[in-house]
Amino acid sequence: MIRRVFYVSDRTGITAETLGRSLLTQFPDTEFRITHVPFVINQVAAEQAAATIRGAREQDGLAPLVFSTLTDPATQFIIASCNEYVFDLFGTFIEPLEDALGTESSHTAGRMHGIGNVGDYERRLNALNFTLSHDDGLSTRDIDGSDVVLVGVSRCGKTPTCLYLAMHYSLPVANYPLTDDDFGQTGLPEILKSCRDKLYGLTIVPEQLSRIRRERRPDGNYSKLAQCRSEVAQAEALFHHEGIPFLDTTTISIEEIAATIVRDMELH
């Protein structure tokens, strides 16, 4: 089965998509074709979005699913009236929250992903800048400024996890790739000893690692299964020997990896 899905929002649509996708994962036998409709900030934009949704219904012969996080009652009404399957993700919860809190909501667009708190926004930017400059061992001069330092072999998921931690948790994070040179010495690499209590390891099944590396560099020893097995085994032996907590990233998402690290390292 194929079903059209619209994410409609008066800002970026991130909230609508995040919750909508979470709900749709419970229907694995259906293929969903996604359309994003962000920045529906007035009635004109809402009428245009409604026309697009009606057009999709006429073309498919089936009503699409619409996930909406609109906050303005006028635009909400236009979207709700254009299709029978409109899931108002804010409206569902705002009225009960108003009752619980004894006050009306502000009905303000973009409070989640706008710059509502300048201090929080600057912390996120600073964390992102720090993380980018300390990616893949590029800089170790002030690595002690990290909240966590991810270690592991090349292509096991360190960089995307670091960026996610910076963007979504405002955490300054560094990562260091373990190579044959590091495995040739006893104990931790020298540059990691000063941040020993901030280390967190990532590992991966060698077969998966080999496949990922072949996509980037198909020739040479780098992507060969024997090399991947050797590196992974030595990395995990180092983690065990040094008492470094680590996580197998083979079958889990970046979001899950990041959340596990935050929990295990008791980060805030």
What order do the helices and strands follow? EHEHEHEHHEHEHEHHEH
Number of helices: 10
CATH topology name of the largest domain: Rossmann fold
**Low-confidence parts lasting 5 or more residues at pLDDT below 50?**
none
Question: Describe it for me?
Answer:
With 268 residues, the protein is of the alpha/beta class. It has 2 domains: 2-101, Rossmann fold (3-Layer(aba) Sandwich); 118-264, Rossmann fold, CATH 3.40.50. 45% of the residues lie in helices and 15% in strands. It contains 10 helices and 8 strands. It has helices spanning 14-24, 43-60, 73-81, 91-101, 118-133, 158-169, 180-183, 206-216, 225-242, 254-264; strands at 2-8, 31-37, 65-68, 86-88, 148-153, 173-178, 199-203, 246-248. The protein has a 4-stranded parallel sheet with strand order 2-1-3-4, with helices on both faces. Strands 6-5-7-8 form a 4-stranded parallel sheet, with helices on both faces. Helix 5 runs antiparallel to helix 6 (158-169) and helix 8 crosses helix 9. The longest helix has 18 residues, at 43-60.
